[in-house]
Protein: HTH luxR-type domain-containing protein
Amino acid sequence: MSIIYTKKFMKAVSLFSLFATILLTARTGMRIFDIIVNHSEYEVLPKALYTRYVSIIINNCIFIGIFIFLIFKPQKFILIGLMALFYSFDALLTNSQQPYMGIPMFALCVATFVIRGFFLKNTKLKIFIFAAVYIICLIAPVFYDEQFTEHLITKIAISFVITIFVFFFAEYAKQMSYKMATKDKVLNIASFKGLERSDMYLLQQVLDNKKYKEIARSINGSEGALRNKLSKIYKILEVGDRTGFLTIYSGYELIYEPEFENSTKD
Structure:
């Protein structure tokens, strides 16, 4: 899973966010320009439809702001999952424009949450809630969708295909986890250039789920300086942030042995 937090992945998230920002800005600009130029045509539209157009513009502006933030803070890519969740709700519940896009967007949301370790605690309860919400989104349009049956069958078919894909991917991940389980869960801090023994003690306290304020107090430092220090450490470890570190290395034993790797090879 650590591949998710590599520099290449973070750069990819930044580039994706930049591309999304450009597209959304262009699309939103075209919508605003159209409303200004053809204002008289929009005035005769039903109020609900006009409100829909305006809400789309507002939503796009919010998304643009989030994507700009992700350009500089790609480790917060959980925001992509939240945006995907919002879009999936909108598409599945209203059946507007392209309702079927709500299904892969919901899958993207779940995948993002899984990567960020959202399901590590209270797993069954959270899975039940997500499944229940998804089913409600599929059934809710029965009250206003004239083609509900046709749309529902297509949505179920798409959901089935995505479920099969997820199943095979999960089985592959399970096999990889079995291979990893044969290895000692040890993180040698000395194997990362730029990290020191003192960094290991800080990371150990993070693994112990201590708050930054508590850790700062233990080293007689400020919380701000500690956050900056840990941010640099997370970058060297390629885990993104605290959540990424805990997701990947929870349960690991931390050591600082400069000769550890050489001794194991001998």
Notes: The first helix runs from residue 7 to 37. The first strand starts at residue 186 and ends at 188. The two ends are 28 Å apart (CA to CA).
